[in-house]
Structures are given as structure tokens and as C-alpha cells.
Amino acid sequence: MNSDIVVIGGGAAGMMAALFAARGGARVTLLEKNEKLGKKVYITGKGRCNVTNACEDVDEFLREVPRNPRFLYSALRHFGPFDMLSLLSDLGCETKIERGRRAFPVSDHASDVTKALEKSLRQAGVEIRLHSEVKRILTEESRVTGALLADGRVLSSAAVIVCAGGLSYPSTGSTGDGLKWAKELGLNVSPTLPSLVGLRTKEAWPAELQGLTLKNICLNGYSCDKMIYSELGELLFTHFGISGPLALTLSSHLPESGKAEATLNLKPGLTPEQLDQRLTRELSAAGKKQLSTVMQTLLPQRFAALFPALCGLDGKTPCSQVSAKMRKTIADHLQALPLTIVGTRPIDEAVVTRGGVDVKGVSPNTLESKAVKGLYFAGEVLDVDAHTGGYNLQIAWSTGALAGKSAAAAQKEGNP
């Protein structure tokens, strides 16, 4: 069995790599070990598929990529967010832009994105093979010669594009195969960690607020007394600690240990002076009411009942007995409530994988390995990851498109 280009993995990056390679004139075989293409795409955006983020320019996009952002410059210039939206429109899948410039299919069905791309692949002449698991990438003298399938068959090819994903959501097929093959070929692979994942806290009190969501608060993260993250947004308390957009984004900035100190500013819209004035006013008007009761004017009921204890105070204290020192303690905790991050949830719960094939060993202009001719990498298998909001899917689309185009161009030049 022969093919000009073999693409391993039928996710976002793989579909795009196969499409652009075929449009570049190559004979392409797309191998997917699952029963259908785009299995992870189906669950993105809670099933709606946040296809991209409509950033104004590349530099704005790269500010949302905490690791190796400059490596993506060529890929994003070659095929950026608006190119993706235009492609989907051409394929009959119209999109819409929502809060935070997040783009979704108008239908709100992720399946429409995958169906449109699969149709385009078949129209471009890509041979799609489902239930086709790859065992190993074959090489001779540092040059790709093909792929060995799990059933023992060999698919000969002068170029292989690895789009096998990372380690997040293993039920979708992302089980680290691409990372294993890279290591077998002697390539450097950065340690893999969960990213965009819930955070475990040392403190037990978040579990008492399980299910409570706070909006318009500020989460600050610190490591070795240095601020590593500060953002305004939404936070969810869970049985293990914190989750929600703020916590997920903080997870992508944590040191490898997964540990950090954090503070919650529950009233970021007030200056310390304004907050003190409000507290003074609320406490004075409350009279003999208990402190935990008056805190309901500042916090949700469940949180208000718990909050005085977090300040080291008795919630049953009459407001008329709250001293200036106690009031300052309350104010300080409202704007800097401490939390200790002791780790993340497991990688199989993460949205994306942090780490992967070391980008220093990959050409940013073609996504070809510098050590193995004809071997390309795209998508989550690479050591690049971004914040939530459509950025990670766009990285998959962009790197897949560039890898596919590059591999096809090398074929035409007779230098795979």
C-alpha cells in the first residue's frame, strides 16, 4: 500500500492537514483509529464547537498562548481565524461571533463542523481509513518511509504528518501515541501536564460552596512571590477546590509542580476606601443583626454564612459590635481571600495537554522535524497550548493547514 502523504489522526489538525495536502496535489491517506473523524471536536464548546477566536491580528492571538507563542507565527499567518471562518462558510457551515469573540456554528452543533470538513476531504480525494491504528512510524537513514499499522500492514509513504493529539480526553483517542513515536525516533518531548483543568486547594471550605459560581471577581496567582496570573471573570467552587474559566486559565500558568498561592478579589470594582465606606454603612444600618446576615448584602447567601469564619470572626457577632479592626479584616479578605493551590485535577480531565514534541526540533515555517525528513507534526502533539476561547482549536486548524501544505509542496519538489 502506498500514499504520497499519510496523516495520522482524524481530529481538527489531522482533517486540516489532509485537506491542505490534498488540495496541494498530493495523494493523501488519513488514518483514524476511532470509528469517526473529529471525535474531540464533537465535545468542544460543550458540544457547540468553539471553532476559533476572532482576534484582530496574530499578535493579539499570541498573547493568549502562554508557551512558545512565536513558534505559531508562521502557521497563523498562513491560516488564521478568519481564514477558518471563511473556509467553513465556503463549505456551507455558517458561523456566529459571541461574547469574548468566540466563534460557533450558527446551528450550535459541533457535528456540523465535522460533517462539513469530512465532506470537503472526500471531495478533495482524501482516502479516509477509520479503525486504523498506527503502531509505529517507519524510517530509514533519518527519512520517513511510512507507517506500520496495528494489524501488521505497512503503508509506504514519503511523508507522515502526526496529528495524534496529546493526553487530554483519552476517550476521544488522545492517548499519547504521537509523543511515544517522537521519543522512539529520538526526538525531544517536553514533560506533559494538564492544562485548562480544575485546581485542587489545600483549604476545605470551597467544597462547602460546591456548585456556587461567582462572576466578575478577580483571581490572582503567585509562585515564588511572583505574580503569574491576574484576571477578572467567573469562578466555580467544587468538591476539590475551584474550576470555571478563571481557574482553568490559571492552570496553564502554574509551575510544573502545579502548586501556587492565590487570592480572590471578591469586590474588584471598589477601591479599598470605597469598600470600607460601604462596609461602614452596611454595618451601621444593620444594628443588632448578625454579621453573617449583613454579609448577604455583599456575597451570595451560602458564601455570606461562611465568610466571617474565613476572616477568623464569629458570624453571630452583632454588627453593632464589629470594631474598626474587625471591619478592616473583613475588607482585606473581601479583596484578597487566600487560597493555596496544591495541584491540578488529572490530565484526563484537562481540556488540552501542556508539553509535547519540543518545538525547537520542528521548523516553524513548515512544521517538519529538523531531525527526520518527511516527518511533520501538527496540533496538540506539539508543545504549544493556549487559553480558553477557541484558541486551541485554531492552533490545530492552523498547524494542520501549514503542515499539509508544506508536505504537499515538498512532494512536488521531489524532496519529501
The portion of residues assigned to helices is 25-40%
Total tally of structural domains:
2
Mean pLDDT score, rounded?
Answer: 95
Low-confidence stretches are: none
Secondary-structure-derived class: alpha+beta
- Judging from the principal axes of the Cα atoms, what is the shape? elongated
Descriptive account of the structure:
The chain has 416 residues and is an alpha+beta fold. The protein has 2 domains: 2-194 and 351-412, FAD/NAD(P)-binding domain, CATH 3.50.50.60; 198-345, no CATH class. It is built from 13 helices and 18 strands. The strands form 4 sheets. Strands 1, 2, 6, 7, 8, 9 and 18 form a 7-stranded mixed sheet that branches. Strand 13 (226-237) and strand 14 (241-243) form a beta hairpin. Helix 1 (12-23) packs parallel to helix 5. The chain is elongated.
